[in-house]
Amino acid sequence: MYIVDTHCDSLLTVNSERGLVNSHNLSKKYPQLQLFAEFVPKDGMPPEYRRKRVFGLLDVYIAECQRLGILPVRDCQELNYAVEHGMRSSILAIEGGGGLLPDSVEIDTLYRMGLRVMSLCWDTNELATSAWDREDLGLTEEGRQMVDILSAYGIIIDVSHLSDKSFYEVIERTAYPVIATHSNFRDICSSPRNLTLDMAKKIAARGGIIGLNIYPAFLSDTGRADKSDIYRHVDYALEKLGEDVLCFGCDIDGVETYPEGFNEDESIHDKLVDILLERYSESVVEKIAGLNAINFFKGNL
After folding, report:
1. In sequence order, what are the residues at sequence separation of 6 or more whose Cβ sits closer than 8 angstroms to the Cβ of residue 52?
2. CATH 3.20.20.140 is held by the domain 3-300
3. Beta bridge partners of 38
4. What is the pLDDT of residues 217-255, one digit of tens each?
5. Which of 123, 117, 187, 191 is nearest to 156 (CA)?
6. Can you give the residue ranges of every domain in the chain?
7. Cα 182 to the center of its chain, rounded Å
């Protein structure tokens, strides 16, 4: 089994005492490809500050991959090598592109340094309205330009955190597959951060994938969760979308709490695999845990 997780925020926790890999964010049993997200909220900060943050986190990512022997994956050849040799590997992502300029120079630099997945917003910014905003204005003109340039470079657009209108505008504007790196299903948990069935079907029809988020607030309307809530979302995905769409997008180090039975003293991915194997066949778990995402990235890097 090769694990793939399409979203974690561990870059934010790197400091002199704690590195990019910790006790809970990577598998201890299996090789793993992890998407490490540069989290860049607007948070009242001017674009210049956010742009500086992007490139500062890029330096941290590169240094930590070198220090830890993690293979940065930028194309299919590198992905195939990592999988065939059972190596720990990574893909660089940005969560919240506000502050970046929708021009070829800045995006070209980030692409050459390894950026392969980007979301337009976390909170509402210069590019798009977020799922949390009650006034849904969709994409801005800069946001539409950013969709065009990301598509031109082949940088995969992450639709997690987008408002409904922003989501549909992205789907209409780009012809390429998109990814929801860490979003669940609104029919099961009503959070606006989750996908409606129509959204999920549009992602699947385009050849995209959806990362299962284990944050309790996105698993259950009660704000508390255990493995039964994880099963409800997985059952829904398998019934409505088939076996080839769902993957892991656990949101590790980006949430305050985890479902009952999960803790930061052990690998969250290993725990999640064990829980899924209690209910689903090994072939289905292998797809959700890694194969679906591997096949997606092989077709889109």
Report:
1. none
2. yes
3. 94
4. 999 999 999 999 999 999 999 999 999 999 999 999 999
5. 117
6. 3-300
7. 5
